[in-house]
C-alpha cells in the first residue's frame, strides 16, 4: 500500500522519483493520512489539501537548510511523512506519540513550533533577518492559510516584511475556508482573484492586450512604464500584496505538482519578499472531507468507508449546554450579541448565528479584535458574549485588561476548553486562564461543577453589570439533569457540598466531582472530608473558605490548571490575608507544559484523580508532610542552558 512512501526517509529521496511515482506517492500519502486520522482523530481536511503543495516544497527546497514554517501547523502531516516520520505516524496525537503540530523536539525539519494561528510570516521574517545578519544562505518559507491570514500578527508581519525587503517566500494556501467559512474583506479579495478570469492573465498577456488598443495602446504602455507599476491596479492579480512590497505569483493550481514546482523554482530565484498564491481544495481526495470540510477540519475517529464520524455516547457537552442556553436567553433579551474569533462551530455559536445573524459577529482569527470590539458593544448597552477557547484568549489578555475591565464593560467571556483538552496537546490546553485573569480588577470569574451549573452561571453572567468570565471544560458534561428554570448564582458564593471535620477539599469546576469521589474514598477509611464547590475564582467565598479553614485546619485545593498563580494560590492568599493558620496542599499542574494524550490519561499523570486527591488528603489528615509528597514523581531538575548549549 505504501511502496513509495515507506522508502522516503528524508526529503532528498523525492528527487529520485519520476512524475508517475510522485503521483503514486501523493495517493499513498492521502491513504495513510485518512487511515490514521480515522483511528486517532486529527486534522484531516487541511492535510489532504496540501499534499501536492508539500511535495512541491520539499522537491524544490532543501529542508532543513531551507526553512519551511507551517502556520498553525495542523496541516503538517504530509511534511512529517516526508521528513522521516512515516514509521511513527500511527502514533499521531497519541500519548507519548507524534504530535499533531510541528515540534522542534521531534525533527530538525520542524523549524518553529506552532499551534496558535498566524505566526508563520512573523517567524519567517525573524529567520530571514537572522540569516542575513549572520551572512548565511537558505530560503525561508512561511506556509499560511487564507484563514490564518485574517489574524493580526500575520498582517503585522506582512506589513513589516514588505517594508524590510529581505528575501523570503510566503505561500498562501487559499482553500476558501477557515474552520468554518472564512470571513472578512481579505477573504473576499482572495475570492475575487480566484473567480475573475482577468486575474489569470499574466503581465505579458495584459501588456499585449493593451498594445493592441488602436492608436493609444503603445502610448498607454509607455505611460504605464513611466509610472513604474502603472496599470497593475487594473488587472494584475495580487495588487494588494504588490503594494505591500511583495512580488506576487499566482494564482496557481495547488493540485498540479508540475506547475507548483515550476512556480516555486521561480520564487526561489526572485529577490525580496515573494507571495505565492496557491489555490487548493480542503479535503482533496476524500469525498466526505471535500463535501464537509468543516467537520473534517479536526475530526474524531470515523469510518473510512462511510465517512461517518463516531459519536461519543453520553451526556451533552458543556459546549452544547452553553449553546442551548445562550439561544434561550437571546430569545428573551435582544441586547445579547454573540462574538467568535473564527470558531463558530467549536464554541457552539453556530445555532445562535443562524437564529440571529444580525446579532452575530465572526471576526476571523482575531481574538484581540473580538474582545476590544466587544468592549465597545457593551459600552453601548448591548450584552456581548465572547465565546472563546481558553488557549486563544491568551492572545487577548491586554484587551481583557485595558478595554473591558478597566472600563468595567459588561462583556461575558464564555471560556470553553478550560483545562486539559487532550490530543491537541501543549499549545491548546487551557491551563493558564485562572492565573492570567484573576488578578485583573473588576472581573468576576466562575467555573461550574457541571453542565446544569453552567446554564445558571451563563444566566447570572448576563444579568451582572460588569465583566464576567465563565470557564468550562472540553467534552461531555457530568450527565446531570438540567433545571428547567434558570436561576441566579449569588456572586462570590460557593457551595458546601459535604460536611466533614477532618479536612476540607476545596475544588473548582470539573474537579468538584473528583473531590466528591475522593471524599467517598476517604469516608470508607473513616476520614471525614468536607467538600466545597468554590464556584467562584473571583471573588472567592471568603466567609465559607475561612470558616472551613478555621474549623478543619486543613485544606486541599484541586484545580485543572497550573498551580502557579492558580486557584489554590488564590486560597493561600486569602488565608494569609485573613490571618488564618491552616495547612494547605494544592493539587494542579506543576510548572511544565502538558503534552498530548487523552484527558483521562493526562489527568492520571498529573494526579487529577479521586484516588490521588484522596491520597494527598489522607497524608494531610494524618500528618503535615512536606509538599514534595503531593506530586507522584519529583519534578525533573531544570537545566538552564547557556549560550552554545542545547537544553
Ligand atoms: C489564535 C488561534 N485562534 C484560533 C485557532 C483555531 N484554528 C485552527 S486552524 C483554524 C483555521 C485556519 O484556516 P486556514 O489558515 O485557512 O487553514 P486551513 O485549515 O483552511 O488549511 C482556526 C480558526 C488557532 N489555532 N489559533
Ligand atoms: C488547529 C486548531 O487550533 C483547531 O482546529 C483545534 O484543534 C480545534 O480543537 P477542538 O477539537 O477542541 O475544537
Ligand atoms: Mg483555509
Automatic annotation (TrEMBL):
CDD domains: TPP_DXS, TPP_PYR_DXS_TK_like. Residues 316-480 form the Transketolase-like pyrimidine-binding domain. One of its GO terms (molecular function) is thiamine pyrophosphate binding. Pfam families: DXP_synthase_N, Transket_pyr, Transketolase_C. Homodimer. GO terms for cellular component: cytosol. It catalyses: D-glyceraldehyde 3-phosphate + pyruvate + H(+) = 1-deoxy-D-xylulose 5-phosphate + CO2. Catalyzes the acyloin condensation reaction between C atoms 2 and 3 of pyruvate and glyceraldehyde 3-phosphate to yield 1-deoxy-D-xylulose-5-phosphate (DXP). Belongs to the transketolase family. DXPS subfamily. This is 1-deoxy-D-xylulose-5-phosphate synthase. Thiamine diphosphate binds at residues 74, 115-117, 147-148, 175, 286, 367. The lineage of its organism: Bacteria, Bacillati, Bacillota, Clostridia, Eubacteriales. It comes from Heliomicrobium undosum. Mg(2+) binds at residues 146, 175. PROSITE patterns: TRANSKETOLASE_1 (PS00801), TRANSKETOLASE_2 (PS00802). Its EC number is 2.2.1.7.
